[in-house]
Write a structure and sequence with these properties.
The complex is a heterodimer of chains A (113) and B (108).
Chain A (H helix, E strand, L loop, with lengths): L3 E4 L2 E4 L5 E7 L5 E8 L3 E10 L2 E4 L7 E2 L9 E3 L8 E8 L8 E2 L3 E5 L1
Parallel strand pairs in A: 2-11
Antiparallel strand pairs in A: 1-3, 3-8, 4-5, 4-9, 5-6, 7-8, 9-10, 9-11
Chain B lengths: L3 E3 L4 E4 L4 E7 L6 E7 L6 E6 L3 E5 L2 E6 L4 E6 L8 E8 L3 E3 L3 E6 L1
Parallel strand pairs in B: 2-11
Antiparallel strand pairs in B: 1-3, 3-8, 4-5, 4-9, 6-7, 7-8, 9-10, 9-11
The chains are: A mainly beta (113), B mainly beta (108).
């Protein structure tokens, strides 16, 4: 089954404790991205990757890191999480970056205390 | 001014009625326009996209685009309770920008 998976789905952590949210897709997609969703603000792009070893900042990259060592995986790293990073995070992938073929993962709800 | 703005909602319509969801955008160079549906606790799913001025119909859904007025709308005919969700408008110029979403509730 074609899908984008994220782990963990739910995470409660404390300020400053490094964490990684994994994202994996099995569709051989070249384009992957991370979004955060907050009430009243919609989806905002954090980082995206056009291909392996190619990553670029989205609209709200501060406080986040990503890597793309393999085509299928695009982990999101929070080196020192803060409460303002409490949010719902979505990973997405598409073959070429075109939104009309973009698949979203199930989401990760992160709470930073 | 937000780059992409939607009705604040929530929007409540009776079953069988037409639901009208509106979206305005600020970047005149925007080329592609998308509507996503997001059920509570789920991820967004694309339901319509439109590139040219005018209407585009797909089943009960019609997307309308007016580039001169910088708005795009989604009409849902014969609304069903299963249409109750948050609808996200997204606009692509150089990058894809999402609106904040409009919550739709269809009452039986």
């Amino acid at each position: 089954e074609a899908q984008v998976t994220q782990n963990p789905r739910y995470l409660i952590t404390v300020t400053g404790k490094k964490l990684t949210v994994t994202c994996s897709q099995n569709m051989n997609h070249e384009y992957m991205s991370w979004y955060r969703q907050d009430p009243g603000l919609g989806l905002r792009q954090i980082y995206y990757s056009m291909n392996v070893e190619v990553t670029d900042k989205g609209d709200v990259p501060e406080g986040y890191k990503v890597s793309r060592k393999e085509k299928r995986n695009f982990p999101l790293i929070l080196e020192s999480p803060s409460p303002n990073q409490t949010s719902l995070y979505f990973c997405a992938s598409s073959l070429t970056g075109t939104p009309n073929e973009q698949f979203f993962g199930p989401g990760t709800r992160l709470t930073v205390l | 001014q937000k780059e992409v703005e939607q009705n604040s909602g929530p929007l409540s319509v009776p079953e069988g009625a037409i639901a009208s969801l509106n979206c305005t955008y600020s970047d005149r160079g925007s080329q592609s326009f998308f509507w996503y549906r997001q059920y509570s606790g789920k991820s967004p799913e694309l339901i319509m996209f439109i590139y040219s001025n005018g209407d585009k119909e797909d089943g009960r859904f019609t997307a309308q685009l007016n580039k001169a007025s910088q708005y795009v709308s989604l009409l849902i005919r014969d609304s069903q309770p299963s249409d109750s969700a948050t609808y996200l408008c997204a606009v692509q110029g150089g990058k894809l920008i999402f609106g904040q979403g409009t919550e739709l509730s269809v009452k039986p």
